Amino acid sequence: MLLSSFIFLLSCAFFFCLRSAEFFALETTVSCMISAANQTECKCRNKEVIVIKCVRWLVFINTLRKRQWIWIGLGDGVSEGVWKWVDRSNLTTGFWKIGEPNNYSGDEDCAFCGYGSDPVKNWNDYSCNNQLVWICEKRI
């Protein structure tokens, strides 16, 4: 089962200054990003897989994930090296770790937020078949 339960982490008013009012849910079980399964599961709950388009947003997400690797709604599976968000918008600002994305195993078409010495530059490409935690968002 892809989804066990969601933990609602914030009310909409608290982070209104970062992005128009939204709710967030951190998936408590791990799952693959492949076949947009997470996106489908989020849509069933009227949410989307998280899209991170600014550094303030990334810093906020880092406080939610407690040193867990999390899938973000970003991939280059359609055209290698052309990173797109699940909302179909192009990646304009990336927060990649040094040397990433590198498509190391030849099938690293999904992106995750990792952790390390740099709290901002922590994205990595990874095979969509790997299992990680993920976050859904809902704009209200």
List keywords for this structure.
27% strand; 140 residues; nine-stranded mixed beta sheet; alpha+beta; 2 helices; disordered N terminus; Mannose-Binding Protein A, Chain A; 9 strands
List the helices and strands and how they pair.
Layout: E1 6-8, E2 22-27, E3 31-32, H1 37-44, E4 48-49, H2 55-65, E5 70-75, E6 84-85, E7 110-113, E8 123-126, E9 131-139
Parallel strand pairs: 5-9
Antiparallel strand pairs: 1-2, 2-9, 3-9, 4-9, 5-6, 5-7, 7-8
Mean pLDDT: 72
- The CATH level-2 architecture is identified as Roll
Overall outline? globular
Q: Would you count the extended β strands for me? A: 9
DSSP strand content: 25-35%
**Uncertain segments:** 1-21
InterPro entries: C-type_lectin-like, C-type_lectin-like/link_sf, C-type_lectin_CS, Ca-Dep_Lectins_ImmuneDev, CTDL_fold
Protein name: C-type lectin domain-containing protein
Keywords: Disulfide bond, Signal
Domain C-type lectin: 44-137
Walk me through what this model shows.
The structure is a single chain. With 140 residues, the chain is α+β, with helices and mostly antiparallel strands. The protein has one domain (6-139): Mannose-Binding Protein A, Chain A, CATH 3.10.100.10. 14% of the residues lie in helices and 27% in strands. Strand 5 (70-75) and strand 6 (84-85) form a beta hairpin.
